[in-house]
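Let us work through a complete example step by step.
Step 1: write down the sequence.
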Amino acid sequence: QVQLVESGGGLVQAGDSLRLSCAASGRTFSAYAMGWFRQAPGKEREFVAGITSSGSALYTYSMKGRFTISRDNAKKLVYLQMNSLKPEETAVYYCAASSLANVIRMSTIAYWGQGTLLTVSS
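Step 2: predict the structure and record it as tokens.
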């Protein structure tokens, strides 16, 4: 069993940077691929970034170069550093744990956090 708790959301201005954190509980944190998804009002939840158990990162194309995902297995933390934020990135951001070590997509998610709201003002 894994429990995920996100933090770090809030209100920022366009162009600002922000880092989200996800604290995980559970003994096998290091065995899961981890990721961040987001859901904007009226839209479907979408993949943002993922990181395998060995540390390889994957990003949605529009975020590559602006967002950085990282993990600290010893502290059971996952981070999402977001730079040059845009108003259209206003959404609830969810931390997620995959059931697999090296694959993360909507269909492999075993655990979700409760989400943290990010609002980017123009």
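Step 3: interpret the result. Residues 38 and 93 are 4 Å apart (CA to CA).
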